[in-house]
Design a protein that fits this description.
Blueprint: H1 5-14, H2 22-34, H3 37-48, H4 50-53, E1 55-56, E2 63-64, H5 70-73, E3 78-85, H6 91-97, E4 102-106, H7 124-132, E5 138-141, H8 147-160, E6 166-169, H9 185-193
Parallel strand pairs: 3-4, 3-5, 5-6
Antiparallel strand pairs: 1-2
Helix pairs in contact: 1-2
């Protein structure tokens, strides 16, 4: 037995989302059928209005509901610090840590020649422009700890250093609550190199 055409269409659309296979898409679609019509309509309106309601900040390239974004307009944030991340989703864990009160800059990805992403495809020129305006004392490179993230951080360090700004990289090593015996040697090695006095 096959599902009705409108349901099959919805399942097909849901499978386009990352991490959603056909079984999960089917389960979600069937759950939506059980939802009250008003709730389903509200969900549809939220999805339909998403592209109009969410914008890119013209200063830091974060996603927001206003331009410039809340991080760029918050007077309590420190202008002399810029934390560079690959994607808007990378800002959330930094904010949750409560340890950072500076500004952000979203690159829009990482340098990956194999995927056709080159430095000119990212918001690097805009970052250098922000730094050149003055007032920035430190750029924190918080790209992901992948091969692409590391090469992007290396490229950025080389591009930013001539501007007489301190360039730092986020520390990495052993996660809290982990056992040494289960950690890989690269993680342990980086944790040993990044050790600090107590």
């Amino acid at each position: 037995m096959s599902y009705p055409k409108p349901l099959r269409r919805l399942i097909g659309m849901l499978t386009r989302l990352p991490g959603i296979g056909e079984k999960t898409a089917t389960r979600l679609a069937l759950h939506m059928l059980k939802m009250p019509p008003a709730a389903l309509r509200e969900m549809g309106e939220a999805i339909a209005g998403l592209s109009d309601a969410v914008v890119r900040c013209s200063k830091c390239f974060n996603i927001a509901d206003m331009d410039p974004c809340a991080y760029c307009t918050d007077p309590a944030r420190r202008d002399e610090l810029i934390c560079v991340v690959e994607d808007p989703t990378d800002i959330i864990p930094i904010e949750k840590s409560g340890e950072y009160k500076g500004r952000y800059h979203v690159l829009g990805g990482a340098i990956s020649p194999i995927d056709g992403v080159m430095p000119e495809d990212l918001h690097i020129r805009e970052l250098l422009g922000r730094i050149s305006q003055g007032g920035v004392e430190e750029v924190i490179l918080a790209t992901n700890l992948t091969a692409e993230g590391e090469s992007t951080a290396s490229y950025l360090a080389g591009a930013v250093k001539p501007l007489n700004v301190r360039v730092t990289r986020i520390a990495y090593g052993m996660p809290v609550g982990s056992d040494l015996e289960y950690a890989d040697e690269i993680t342990v090695g980086r944790a040993m190199k990044g050790r600090r006095e107590v």
